[in-house]
Structure to design on (402 residues):
């Protein structure tokens, strides 16, 4: 396992000399290596891919395809189809709008999931393309394979599962759920926006059918991400492209057309070539420091947060300590709006956290949290000192309203 030293990692992120960044569940920082990879692409081979014969186009095409292969290895999904997207949201919509649905189909979703893994499926019901949505309660912060299985009916076609909660930071048992899905011939879509940055993944071993992720949460550029489709997906379960146009077409005759095979069919128009190259560099960076190291470090910092915050009178922690965790913890301070807590953390100690509903309004309504929560999310470049400063400053805030 590679040596892991958060202090040395921090040197690749200049802004960390000025502040404590704990908003990684929303957007991570990018190291200088990722920025430099994008700049190199812009300076030395800015060109469209797959269409030109000149040297810049050939070089850009090579780097773009190499980036795809790098991401496939990083995710443990070399045998599947990996299409570049803008983000997790676009990837989920490709699946939702691209599958040939039957009107009797039902979908299972999880109450705690991000709107990006709820609304694409809700729209299918609202557009009368499927029979309905079954929502698994997860107000306690976790979801089990048994919870999912109890909601399955003979018409369940797909389960849309957040691999980890962006509110609680808890990790779902994806492999167990995938085994249930295979046994019952049900599709499994995993929202991996929070796990691609934090966990060593092997999508082929997990057994999901679709996996969506975002680059900006895993040290990569904004506006990058991907959709992975298992090689086992066939027939009407292979999503049709969300967009049509240049780049994804094989032939056009009259008003009919055929698409190219493979991931290119999902990448209509000019792709974000420098972004894909930067995202691949982010994957290499994470691989070099070791994803098992990242997972262990993030989970340890989360548990340190939970224990420290839970000891403060007037602070309520919503993330369960005894569950598998990434680096994310949600909490509130009695009689202080989460936005005020976040503002004070920034002004008093230069601590960046997220506050509000975290694009999880159904969960917040179920928890009766009208202002949402404060969410602190740690990553590979955070230290114990960062967490201790968060705890100490939160204690100061709680003490001010006694």
């Amino acid at each position: 396992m590679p040596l892991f030293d958060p202090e040395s990692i921090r040197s690749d992120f200049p802004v960390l000399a000025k502040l404590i960044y704990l908003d990684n569940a929303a957007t991570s920082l990018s190291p200088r290596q990722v920025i430099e990879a994008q700049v190199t692409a812009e300076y030395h081979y800015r060109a469209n891919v797959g269409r030109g014969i000149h040297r810049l186009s050939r070089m850009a095409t090579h780097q773009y395809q190499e980036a795809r292969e790098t991401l496939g290895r990083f995710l443990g999904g070399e045998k599947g189809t990996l299409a570049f997207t803008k983000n997790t949201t676009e990837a989920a919509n490709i699946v939702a709008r691209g599958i040939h649905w039957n009107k009797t189909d039902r979908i299972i979703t999880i109450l705690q999931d991000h709107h990006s893994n709820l609304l694409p499926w809700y729209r299918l019901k609202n557009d009368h393309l499927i029979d309905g949505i079954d929502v698994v309660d997860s107000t306690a912060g976790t979801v089990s394979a048994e919870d999912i299985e109890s909601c399955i009916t003979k018409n369940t076609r797909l389960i849309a599962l957040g691999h980890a909660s962006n509110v609680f930071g808890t990790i779902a048992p994806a492999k167990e759920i995938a085994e249930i899905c295979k046994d019952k011939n049900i599709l499994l879509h995993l929202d991996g926006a929070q796990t691609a940055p934090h966990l060593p993944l092997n999508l082929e071993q997990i057994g999901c059918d679709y996996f969506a992720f975002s680059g900006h949460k895993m040290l990569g550029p904004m506006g990058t991400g991907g959709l992975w489709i298992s090689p086992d997906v066939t027939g009407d379960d292979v999503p049709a492209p969300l967009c049509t146009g240049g780049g994804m077409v094989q032939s056009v005759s009259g008003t009919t057309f055929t698409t190219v095979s493979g991931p290119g069919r999902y990448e209509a128009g000019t792709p974000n070539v420098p972004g894909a190259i930067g995202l691949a560099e982010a994957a290499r960076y994470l691989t070099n420091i070791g994803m098992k190291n990242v997972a262990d470090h993030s989970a340890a910092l989360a548990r340190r947060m939970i224990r420290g915050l839970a000891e403060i009178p007037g602070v309520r922690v919503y993330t369960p300590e005894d569950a598998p965790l990434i680096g994310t913890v949600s909490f509130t301070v009695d009689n202080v709006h989460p936005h005020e807590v976040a503002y004070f953390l920034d002004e008093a100690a230069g601590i960046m956290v997220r506050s509000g509903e975290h694009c999880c309004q159904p969960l917040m309504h179920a928890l009766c949290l009208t202002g949402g929560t404060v969410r602190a999310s740690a990553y590979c470049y955070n230290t114990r000192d960062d967490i201790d400063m968060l705890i100490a400053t939160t204690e100061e805030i709680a003490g001010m309203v006694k």
User: Anything to note?
Assistant: The CA atoms of residues 189 and 210 lie 5 Å apart. The mean pLDDT is 97. The first helix runs from residue 6 to 10. Residues 6-31+291-397 form a domain with the Aspartate Aminotransferase, domain 1 fold (CATH 3.90.1150.10).
